[in-house]
Amino acid sequence: MHLLEVENLTKRFGGLTAVKNVSFQIDEGEIVGIIGPNGAGKTTLFNLVSGFLKPDSGTVKLRGEDITGLAPHKIVNKGLARTFQVVRPFHHLPVIANVMVALKSPRGARKIEWLKTMERKAADLLEDVGLSELALEPAENVGHGTLKRLEMAKALATEPDLVMLDEPFGGLNPLETEFLTKSIMRMHLDEPARGILVVEHKLYALMKIVQRVIVLHQGEKIAEGKPEEIAKNKMVIEVYMGKGM
Amino acid sequence: MTITSYLRRAYSSFVAHVFDIPARFMAFLLFLTLLFIPLMGLAPFYLSVLIQANVLAIFAASWDLLVGRTGQISLGHAVFFGIGAYSTAILSSTVYGFGLPLWVTIPIAMLVGSASALLIGFPCLRVKGPYLALVTMAFPLILQTVIKWTPLNPVFHGENGIKIGVPPLFPFLSIRPYNQQRMAEYYFSLIMLFICAVIIYKIANSKTGIVFASILDDELASKACGINTTKYKLMAFILSGLFATLAGALQAHFSPRGADPSTLGLTMSFTPVVVAFLGGIGTIYGSIVGAYVYTLLDWFLLRDLIPRLLPSIPYEARQYLNLLIFSLLVLIFVIKWPRGVARFTTDKLEDLEEARDLDERGPRIWKRYKRKREKSSSI
User: Fold this and answer.
1) Cα–Cα distance, B291 to B285 (Å, whole number)
2) Closest-CA residue in chain A for B70?
3) C-alpha to C-alpha distance for A162 and A165, rounded to whole angstroms
4) 3-state class (DSSP) for residue B330
């Protein structure tokens, strides 16, 4: 049984088909990347899988259980967490309270072990992404790179089986990118059974961490394979660079 | 010896906790002032104005819990106020044969209020933002129309409303003189306000309060954290309705008009909005300070001072003049202190605090206590 199984997912916005018959699988412990030029339908696919949009047709299965069209919070509580491309912190709350919101969800609360308080669990999560020192700072006062890491901590708070990261490196400088790459790798090593799905524009950073890449173009899946294969794939190069290269 | 040391420890912990933060110190001073006001020998009329301020403070705090803390805009909070007023009035008036005492009617009214909040919340929370504001606005008006409906006059007495006589608040104390009765009412409303303020403050700072704040900031992100936002919004609605009903019940008991259709009017819906904006949204001090500022402006400036200064203006014209002056005042307040009077004060105090050295912080009593402690430790 696959961890995530997406079959023939389709979504239309009026006359535009944003995602067309996309199917793919993710197994336990896999890190999979989704790439594609602007407007390829990556974020739409993300929203369809995480329940923020309802698909026109097709199914999404998590551990064999059909989760197509469920409400977002129900999907999170089934073990599929996501981050946003544009960071969405709770501005008025301190950094640590941002994480505590996720710990207040049914799944987050269940995963707090016996005798471990919510505050301690939140502090541990912040330490994992290197935010301990900013724990009590209001989220509106911290920088963009920090908020990206906070998004990760929020997603990890529910201890999901599958994490979906929407452009985790967007707007980060090389140093921050490297740090985040390390924490994604650590996230993978800490929980080897956890699947990770990454949508990214920065191919160089992405290719270093993923085991498999899915390429989208105009809503359709045009290629899938190991990063090295994809980098040599003629069709992918055509899509990115244009014909005649 | 043990008793004195215990007392000293209690005193020092009291000083350390109460006088630590300027905002807390201000709140303490405010509470002391409110506690001693009736002992200044005010006329019963002034006391009844202050009682109204207390009721308004509870009402505004309940509105603030829903809007300032959870971000669900309600412009029809009068519906809970009216339900509270009418259900207490029906239960305690002898006309209907119930004639229950205040200690029974208020809890029942609060139960009715929270049940109605559940009923109203279900359809309302399907819409968001300005649409929610419009939908909530309709409910008190519907109820008001029902109550004014002629065939129902034998039950609700139409425009006249239901009056509750003034039953002794504490029958076992047998407070007979009118003045004393008012004072007892004042203290009762003050204690109720204090209890409500503490409960709302505790809710807002609890873990559930954190979730409320997350919905206020970004509902979608809150959903992405696995939070069933509808459940929490409904919870905020019910809690808010509970306290608003309490305010309505107190109003029915302590106001000479009892429960009448004006408790469901548009004015009553907008009053908590104005009060919370005057005091400062999202704080408990804001509602209390705002309620007092509002009531004092309303009664002592508009209904007392202006008629005295301009005696030649007829009553009808004065009504419009009052409205004009009041609107202008609110406008000035909101422009001058957009975050509210209470917040402005606490922010200023905290700025002063930061400007000072960390060792020198706190009011004089705190410093004296520190100096004493240093002396004793050096010996």
Assistant:
1) 10
2) A92
3) 10
4) helix
DSSP run (H or E) holding B90: helix B78-92
Q: Rounded to a whole number, what is the distance in angstroms from the first to the last CA of chain A?
A: 41
> How far is Cα B269 from Cα B273, in angstroms, rounded to an integer?
8
- Three-state DSSP at B325 gives helix
Minimal C-alpha gap between B286 and chain A (Å): 17
d(CA A126, CA B249): 47
Q: ∠ at Cα B265 (B259, B270), nearest 5°?
A: 120
Strand partners, A32: A197, A212
Per-residue pLDDT of chain A (245 residues; tens, 9 = 90+): 889 999 999 999 988 889 999 999 999 989 999 988 888 888 899 999 999 999 999 999 999 899 998 999 999 999 999 999 888 999 889 999 999 999 999 888 887 776 678 888 899 889 888 888 888 888 888 888 889 889 989 999 988 999 999 988 888 888 888 888 888 888 888 888 899 999 987 788 888 889 999 998 888 888 888 888 888 888 888 887 777 65
Q: Taking CB atoms and an 8 Å limit, are B224 and A88 in contact across chains?
A: yes
Report residue B248 as tokens: 């309505």
Of B220, B225, B228, the CB nearest to A101: B225
ipTM: 0.89
Q: Is A219 left (phi over 0), alpha (psi -120 to 50) or beta?
A: left
Q: Which of A49, A73, A112, A120 to mutate to test the interface with B (most CBs of B within 10 A)?
A: A73
